[in-house]
Amino acid sequence: MIAEGFFLSLRQNFVVMKKINYVLYCLVALVLMTAACSRGRSGDVKGLLQTVPADASAVAVVDLNALPENVDDNLPYKLPVDATEENGVDRSVAAFFIGGYNSYITGFLEDTDKFKASVEKETGEAFRAEGDVAVSGNIAVISDRFWVCVSSRNTVNTDEIKHFTTLSEKQSILSNEVVAGLEEMKHDVSGWGDIKGCMNAAGLDFATRATATMAVEAMFVDAVEFSWNMDFKKSELLADLNVLNSKGGIAKFNFPAAKIDEATVAAAGSTADGVVALAVSPEMVKKLREETGGKGFSMIGVIAGMISCVDGTCAAAVSESGNMTGVIATTGRGTTDLSSMLSELGMTVSKEGNLLRFGKGEVSGGMSVSEAAAELKGSMAGAVYSGKSGKVASDKISSVVVTLNPEKGGLAAHVKVRWKE
Q1: Pairing outcome for strands 189-194 and 145-149
Q2: Contact 306/288 with Cβ under 8 angstroms?
Q3: Which of 20-34, 62-76, 104-118: highest mean pLDDT?
Q4: What pLDDT digit, counting tens, does each position of 214-263 carry?
């Protein structure tokens, strides 16, 4: 299944990595959505989580004091208030969650009147009263709490807001033991999500959702949830994600894992806007064939047969133009089917010892392929994008690195985002 993702991505312009970038985009958006808060008292994380319904698809808690200031005003979305001490927001903790078809940010207010004045000045829309709820556009206020409906620019469901405030602990997301552990705030940002719920909330079409579900089920044993966290260091963000089983433990990765070879990745090109790589072992291919054997016609099974010659690292360097060059380590035998598939994708293919080289057009870009290779060394799969890549959300970001690493019997994702001083 992992090998299928790599080779199908050649046809789809690395769709898999674009999905990862979408996740990164949302994570960075979350940071900016909460970065506009002012100083105040310490927050009550449990109090925030108790207003998140138990059937929420995802939730995250943020230590606002740990966030960097002014990372980039051009990033996707932030609270519609200026980042000053006059906006009335309590700079303590905030929560983000997806409930049903809506997404919210909620937090505490130090001064409700100041907050309302700041919002009205920014949006030009006065707050109006709907029962106990004060509403302006997509922002709702009850007493010293605010909610921003992130999924809308000018509406918020006041009945939903009132419902959130009346939840008991058992009716809230605190009934999930993994989420309850977020109260400890061991990281600057910590989150949890239900895999199927998040796929539905993402608005994926049926075919994409079915493919993603099949991939998760093939790759992991009993994978139902995921947990993640982010921490800010000087000029960089570090994030980790783990897939969890129905008992809240690490979901077992279902394939023998291999590790990316740095030298093979470096051989993919000189400079590029992005580099993707995957390590494939004969044991992994054998397992893939066993998983798909005897199930009638299967595209995965067909691809598994084509890549039976692969033994080692597969890597591609890409440019914004869509051109790419790459290498695939093989056993040196039985490469005809794989070469034919690459040719059908519009690639020129040549054999160099045990390496298959493929490419389409000239590739150049804003980063060194050899330096990107060093970032991927030791992982099973990964991608590196330069700050000049259009897949990166901001021109102030210098690089984005995403790797998948076998850990504790599972497969952990690690993300590193660096930005310019």
Answers
A1: unpaired
A2: no
A3: 104-118
A4: 889 888 999 999 999 999 988 889 999 999 999 999 999 999 999 999 99
Rounded Cα distance, 190 and 94, in Å: 11
Q: What's the CA angle centered on 391, arms 386 and 394, to 5 degrees?
A: 75
**3-state SS of 27-70?**
HHHHHHHHCCCCCCCCCCHHHHHCCCECCCCEEEEEEHHHCCCC
DSSP, residue by residue, 232-276: EETTEEEEEEEEEETTSSBPPB-S------HHHHHTT-SEESEEE
Smallest CA-to-CA distance from 314 within 346, 285, 273 is with 285
Phi-psi region of 368 (alpha: psi -120 to 50; beta: other; left: phi over 0): beta
- As beta bridge partners, residue 62 has 94, 189
Sequence-distant (6+) residues with CB within 8 A of 52 are 59, 95, 97, 99, 164, 167, 172, 173
* Cβ contacts of 254 within 8 Å, gap of 6 or more: 218, 219, 220, 221, 287, 291
pLDDT in tens, 364-376: 998 999 999 999 9
d(CA 260, CA 314): 8
